[in-house]
Structure formats: structure tokens, C-alpha cells
Amino acid sequence: CDYYKDTQKYAFDDGQVGYWLKVMGSVDILLAHNSPQGIHDRDDGIHNGYESLLRYVQSHRTKFLFHGHQHISQETTVGSTKVIGVFGAAVYDLDTGVQVWACNPHDTRA
Length: 110
Description:
Blueprint: E1 2-4, E2 9-11, H1 14-24, E3 29-32, H2 51-60, E4 64-67, E5 74-78, E6 81-85, E7 89-93, E8 98-103
Parallel strand pairs: 3-4, 4-6
Antiparallel strand pairs: 1-2, 5-6, 7-8
Helix pairs in contact: 1-2
């Protein structure tokens, strides 16, 4: 494991993530802390996705992958997988893939 920031809390490296994805097998919906590599990455060296997660969604054709970590609300399609970054909270219709409700912590409207 690598240390995350200076808090001494552990983060998995890409090899460890790849191992657990292999053990897990195929799923239709994947809930992950981080995104696949190159999807919703930030240019700060710490908010970058995992290469093994990208390979997983490309080969297993997961229908949805929901993630946080980058603190954005954004959707990107990778092959047949809808990768959804959620910041705050969101509700999706899993039959249609349409967001039906969201609450973003930066939204100050009453």
C-alpha cells in the first residue's frame, strides 16, 4: 500500500486493485472510490484513476461504474460502460441510465 497524503492512511496501488478486480469477477454495477485511468483525472498527481480499473471495464463491459475521489459530478462512456463521477449524492434510474436526482455540496441554492 502507498500512503495517501500525510495522514498515514493507506491507499491501494494499481497492482492491488487489479488483483481484487480479478478475484471479484464480472459485475453489472461497480461502486469504486476511484475512477479508471484517464477518466475524470485531475492534474494534481493524487486524483488519478487506476489503469487496472480501465482494463476491467473495457474487458468486462460493466454497465455502470460509480466513483468519487475526484470531487466532480461528470459522466463519461468507456466502451459500453457509463462511468459516473458523483460529488455529493445522486440517484440514477439503472434501467435508463438517467440521473433523476442530485445534491451537489457546492450548490448554494436554497
